[in-house]
Design a protein that fits this description.
Elements lengths: L2 E6 L3 H12 L3 E8 L8 E2 L2 E5 L3 H4 L6 E4 L8 H12 L3 E2 L2 E2 L4 E2 L10 E2 L4 E2 L4 E2 L4 E2 L4 E2 L4 E2 L4 E2 L4 E2 L4 E2 L4 E2 L4 E2 L4 E2 L4 E2 L4 E2 L8 E2 L18
Parallel strand pairs: 1-2, 1-5, 2-4, 5-6, 7-9, 8-10, 9-12, 10-13, 11-14, 12-15, 13-16, 14-17, 15-18, 16-19, 17-20, 18-21, 19-22, 21-23
Antiparallel strand pairs: 3-4
């Protein structure tokens, strides 16, 4: 019998969470919740949307679990705040771990994690609470990802890397082995990080500029 699950959110991430939990987990999504001021419709994905302030009036923490389906807005702080608020209400928080990922760390993964398809999590990795791993990442052996981080797609985290709380790592970033990334760092898309990153650092990749030659002048295409 599937466990009843309520999802916090009513946007794209919540819709994705509904899809993944419905098609690839032991949970049955039974409703959604958001702050009362943000309710625009009383149903989402065909299920009821209830005010977060009144959540306990609709769903019991004894029988229902909750998943906070929010992005990296304000450097993960919005998702972090709702994670803490949900805990305060006494709800257990579910994690989604795709059956299409390779997970070899003996399940050393916290709650409210969202781990999508094609992630490779090697042995002896530790993943904290409220961590998002979008699709297609490599998490090297003995690495630690602390709470409230968001790792975008196709990121390579080599062995023995320590990533502090509240970090964001963008698409196609590469982190060499045995470095530390301080709390609240932003590692941009395509960045190659070869040394420790101090807390609250911002590392930006170089964007590709448009060529002066227009596409109509390219003879080989």
């Amino acid at each position: 019998m599937k466990k009843p699950l309520v999802i916090f959110g009513s946007g794209d991430i919540a819709q994705l969470a509904h899809f993944y939990f419905t098609t690839d987990s032991n949970y049955e999504v039974v409703g959604f919740t958001v702050d009362a001021d943000f309710i625009t419709e009383n149903k989402f994905c065909g299920l009821p949307v209830v005010p977060f302030e009144d959540l306990a009036d609709f769903f019991s923490s004894d029988t229902h679990e909750l998943f906070v389906a929010l992005s990296y807005s304000k450097l993960n702080q919005v998702r972090k705040e709702k994670y803490i608020a949900t805990k305060a209400l006494g709800f257990r928080l579910a994690s989604y771990i795709s059956s299409r990922s390779t997970v070899l760390n003996s399940g050393n993964i916290g709650d409210n994690c969202f781990i999508l398809e094609d992630n490779t999590i090697q042995p002896f990795v530790t993943i904290g609470n409220n961590v998002t791993l979008w699709s297609g990442n490599h998490i090297g052996h003995h690495s630690i990802i602390h709470d409230h981080c968001f790792i975008a797609s196709q990121v390579v985290i080599s062995g023995g890397v320590d990533i502090g709380k509240d970090c964001f790592i963008g698409v196609n970033a590469t982190l060499r082995d045995h470095i530390k990334v301080g709390e609240k760092c932003v590692i941009g898309a395509g960045v190659l990080l070869l040394a420790d990153a101090e807390p609250e650092g911002v590392y930006m990749g170089v964007a590709t500029e448009r060529s002066r030659v227009p596409s109509t002048k390219l003879r080989s295409i």
